[in-house]
Amino acid sequence: MKLYRFLSADDTSEFCHKVTAALNKGWELHGSPTYAFDQANGVMRCGQAVTKDAPGVYTPDMKLGEQ
């Protein structure tokens, strides 16, 4: 099965660590990162899509971060 996640966080090192952790668990970058101003909170936010091929059958209740 093919899994998809969209990682996001404020523009801090936390975001880089989140993406790095996913890469080290076998996820692959999908597309370009995004960067936008979150006016409600007054901060810049980053996002990155990642995908992963995994055995099994997808179910909506699976925890993607644990795959």
Secondary structure topology:
Blueprint: E1 2-10, H1 13-24, E2 28-38, E3 43-53
Antiparallel strand pairs: 1-3, 2-3
SSE run:
EHEE
Shape: elongated
Query: Which whole number gives the mean pLDDT?
Result: 95
Describe the strand arrangement of the main beta sheet, using strand numbers. Answer: 1-3-2
Distance between the termini: 11 Å
List the total number of helices.
Answer: 1
Report Rg.
Answer: 13 Å
Task: Name the structural class.
Answer: alpha+beta
Spans with pLDDT under 50 lasting ≥5 residues?
none
What proportion of the residues form beta strands (DSSP E)?
over 45%
Please supply descriptive tags for the structure shown above.
67 residues; alpha+beta; 3-stranded antiparallel sheet; 1 helix; 3 strands; 18% helix
Provide a descriptive summary of the structure in words.
The protein is an alpha+beta fold. The chain is 18% helix and 46% strand. It contains 1 helix and 3 strands, in the order βαββ. The protein has one helix at residues 13-24; strands at 2-10, 28-38, 43-53. A 3-stranded antiparallel beta sheet has the order 1-3-2, covered by helices on one side. It is elongated and about 40 Å long. The termini are close together. The model has no long low-confidence stretch (mean pLDDT 95).
